[in-house]
Amino acid sequence: MSKFLFGSLSKTLVVALLTCVVIAAVTAWLLLPTNNAQYPADQLVTTDVQIENELKLVQVTLDSQQSNQDYLLHFLDADSDEKIAVVFVKRGSLKVVSLPVGDYHIKFASGAQWQDEQSLFGADTDIRQTQIPMKLTARRSGASYNVIRLNTKFIGQLQPAKM
Question: This protein's superkingdom (predicted)?
Fold first, then answer.
């Protein structure tokens, strides 16, 4: 009789413990903070520079594989400060964009959690800008290949700026 009772209790106990574990896991998952903000869409802004150089595009790889931040980049014409492109890069990723040949300043906004286009990354938004223009040129054999590594070391060398 005691074997039957003990065996029955242990099965009931195991089922009860498993039920508690499942309920705790589901509750924890439901309570995790979520970021419902939509990431901004990439834009290549139509400008005189783009029209003038539309056949001369340069591929640029934006590499955030070694970063724990997301980035919003504004590519600005170095002479006029006119916005040429806006690109969002998620942490830990590679993104290839095609930009018109030209000289650019780049403004970077970075942070841990995207909010929206107005608040960017909230209170922890870090905004930086290149001081020396970046020259993008096409080679005769086709588009050249450029890599911008988005990481704390690189961003830390840039000057603070405002979007």
Answer: Bacteria
pTM more than 0.70: no
SS3 at position 90? coil
Identify the burial level of 51 via C-beta atoms within 10 angstroms of its C-beta, where 0-12 means exposed, 13-18 middle and 19 or more buried: exposed
Residue 11 carries which side chain, given as an amino acid letter? K
Q: Give residue-wise pLDDT tens across range 37-76.
A: 677 776 666 445 444 544 577 888 899 998 889 999 999 9
Number of DSSP helices (H) and strands (E) in the chain, helices first: 3, 10
Cα separation, 100 vs 115, in Å, equals 29
Which among 40, 118, 48 has a CA at the least distance from the CA of 77? 48
pLDDT, position 3: 52
